[in-house]
């Protein structure tokens, strides 16, 4: 056996980024949170200013509305005072002219209302209006004292005396002066009302302008800020993503660019550390795989050579044993004939074992080129090869329509030879064997089925039967070496598929295996997880497939 080649030295360990000034640089860099929040300060301050301006405007508008309401109330009270003066004057003159006591009722009610309205207006009026109100109140009081009461008192005694007092015109002059003062107050209140209304409308317009303008400007600033932040963060992440993609592609010596953001810089450093660790692990794994590959090749070569070389002495033993059996049969004692028979039988079994081992070794040799195979023709040729065995057991093989696949004819032929041959071998004693071969499209591949009506298999042996030299029956029951299903599994796995069994004792067995759609590379190459579909049904994996590798 040749000595193993020396393992090439691995690449020098890539040191992790030096952390000498990491803390200082981390403090100098802004955090991702501050980088995202700082650009939003100006728009938020603007929105806050707009809110304050709206609050002030609403307050001023409320004040203006209060002024308008007070002015309207004062106008109503001034108008009421004018009505009270007219009621008192009309009641007093009616009584003087007619002497009817009923005219004194409006006069008395007018005096009461005038007093109440005067107090109410005084509480609501500004100082200048209070001065005019005091003047009106004084004039009306003087009218009571100098005109109204004397005229009423005179009318109770004589119409002529009352008429002479009225004719002087003193009372009318006093009330006319009071009316002029009320008119001045009304003009002043109308002016105040107009000013308050204009101020309220102006405040409302300003609030609208500030609100709409501030909101539009704030939204614009937010959009611009969000765009800038998104562009900055996207650029940083794109740099990290591109670096990580190149590292994932195998450039483990590449180091990610340093970032101005604390968290992204830390992420980049961790990715660099991970890349260095992966680089070391990859080298160790490559060395281990090379050693394992050499070991496997040497073992396969050893098995092939050993099996091939063992056949020559085995043929010699078989030939001389056969000569002994023919020449000395019956000339020795019965025990000698029995020994010779045992030797012949053992030699035959040994020959079969060596041939099966050679077949298994040949099947495990990868690198076969896939071709387009018509499985109907391939399985038909297998059935033709087994025609003698089918006829010997009185069986029948039914072929349903089979597809065309990409694969290796030699390997797939071995699969069907072993599966159909086992179906004919492990037949039930009470019925003729019937084997049905079918295929179904599933996912990204085909699943072939070989179903029989034979003796079936216990569930606990569904995994064991696919091992090398694994038998469930003795040589006196069924012949064979127990390597056929191991050959079938190896051939299927070299196509990137899996093989499993569904069976119960006495109910026959259904062996299924999957052949994925064609992938790049020769048959026997190790498939990758990204390129190889999983055509095994989930139910079959859970129910019948072994835990370590599919049966």
Automatic annotation (TrEMBL):
Gene3D superfamilies: 1.10.287.130, 6.10.340.10, Histidine kinase-like ATPase, C-terminal domain
InterPro entries on file: CHASE3, HAMP_dom, HATPase_C_sf, HATPase_dom, His_kinase_dom, HisK_dim/P_dom, HisK_dim/P_sf, Sensor_kinase/Photoreceptor
Subcellular location: Membrane
Residue ranges of the TM segments: 40-58, 209-230
GO MF entries: phosphorelay sensor kinase activity
Region Disordered, annotated ranges: 1-25, 522-551
Known EC number: 2.7.13.3
Catalytic activity: ATP + protein L-histidine = ADP + protein N-phospho-L-histidine
Cellular component, GO annotation: membrane
UniProt biased composition (Low complexity): 537-551
Record domain HAMP: where: 231-283
Compositional bias (Pro residues): 1-18
SUPFAM superfamilies xref list: ATPase domain of HSP90 chaperone/DNA topoisomerase II/histidine kinase (SSF55874), Homodimeric domain of signal transducing histidine kinase (SSF47384)
Domain of life (superkingdom): Bacteria
Keywords: Kinase, Membrane, Phosphoprotein, Transferase, Transmembrane, Transmembrane helix
One family name in Pfam for this protein: HisKA
Domain Histidine kinase: 305-519
Protein name stated in the entry: histidine kinase
Organism field: Deinococcus metalli
Species lineage: Bacteria, Thermotogati, Deinococcota, Deinococci, Deinococcales
């Amino acid at each position: 056996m040749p000595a193993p080649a020396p393992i090439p030295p691995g690449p020098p360990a890539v040191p992790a980024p030096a952390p000498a000034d990491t803390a200082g640089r981390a403090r100098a860099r802004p955090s991702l949170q501050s980088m995202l929040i700082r650009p939003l300060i100006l728009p938020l301050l603007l929105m806050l200013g707009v809110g304050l301006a709206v609050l002030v405007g609403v307050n001023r508008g409320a004040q203006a509305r209060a002024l308008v309401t007070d002015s309207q109330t004062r106008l109503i009270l001034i108008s009421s005072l004018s009505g009270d003066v007219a009621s008192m004057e009309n009641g007093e003159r009616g009584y003087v002219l007619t002497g009817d006591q009923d005219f004194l009722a409006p006069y008395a009610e007018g005096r009461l209302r005038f007093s109440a309205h005067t107090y109410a207006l005084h509480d609501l009026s500004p100082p200048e209006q209070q001065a005019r109100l005091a003047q009106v109140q004084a004039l009306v009081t003087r009218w009571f004292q100098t005109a109204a009461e004397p005229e009423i008192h005179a009318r109770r005694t004589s119409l002529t005396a009352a008429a002479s007092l009225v004719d002087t015109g003193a009372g009318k002059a006093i009330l006319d002066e009071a009316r002029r003062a009320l008119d001045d107050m009304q003009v002043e209140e109308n002016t105040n009302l107009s000013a308050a209304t204009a101020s309220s409308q102006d405040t409302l317009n300003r609030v609208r302008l500030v609100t709409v303008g501030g909101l539009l400007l704030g939204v614009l600033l937010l959009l611009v800020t969000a765009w800038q932040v998104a562009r900055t963060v996207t650029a940083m992440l794109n740099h990290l993503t591109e670096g990580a993609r190149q590292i994932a592609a195998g450039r483990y010596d590449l180091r990610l660019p340093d970032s101005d953001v604390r968290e992204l810089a830390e992420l980049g450093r961790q990715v660099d550390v991970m890349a260095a660790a992966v680089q070391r692990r990859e080298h160790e794994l490559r060395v281990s795989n090379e050693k394992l590959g050499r070991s496997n090749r040497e073992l396969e070569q050893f098995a092939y050579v050993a099996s091939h070389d063992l056949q020559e002495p085995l043929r010699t033993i078989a030939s001389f044993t056969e000569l002994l059996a023919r020449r000395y049969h019956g000339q020795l004692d019965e025990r000698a004939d029995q020994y010779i028979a045992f030797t012949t039988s053992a030699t035959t079994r040994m020959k079969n074992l060596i041939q099966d081992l050679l077949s298994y070794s040949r099947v495990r040799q990868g690198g076969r080129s896939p071709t387009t195979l018509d499985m109907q023709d391939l399985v038909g040729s297998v059935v033709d090869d087994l025609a003698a065995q089918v006829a010997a057991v009185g069986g029948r093989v039914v072929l349903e329509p089979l597809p065309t696949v990409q694969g290796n004819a030699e390997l797939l032929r071995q699969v069907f030879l072993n599966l159909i041959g086992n179906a004919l071998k492990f037949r039930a004693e009470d019925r003729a064997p019937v084997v049905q071969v079918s295929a179904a499209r599933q996912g990204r591949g085909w699943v072939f089925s070989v179903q029989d009506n034979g003796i079936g298999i216990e569930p606990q042996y569904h995994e064991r039967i696919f091992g090398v030299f694994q038998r469930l029956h003795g040589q006196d029951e069924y012949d064979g070496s127990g390597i056929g299903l191991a050959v079938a599994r190896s051939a299927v796995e070299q196509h990137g598929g899996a093989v499993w069994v569904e069976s119960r004792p006495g109910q026959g067995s259904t062996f299924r295996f999957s052949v994925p759609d064609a992938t790049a590379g020769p048959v026997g190459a190790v498939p990758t997880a990204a390129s190889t579909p999983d055509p095994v049904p989930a139910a079959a994996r859970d129910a019948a497939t072994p835990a370590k590798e599919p049966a």
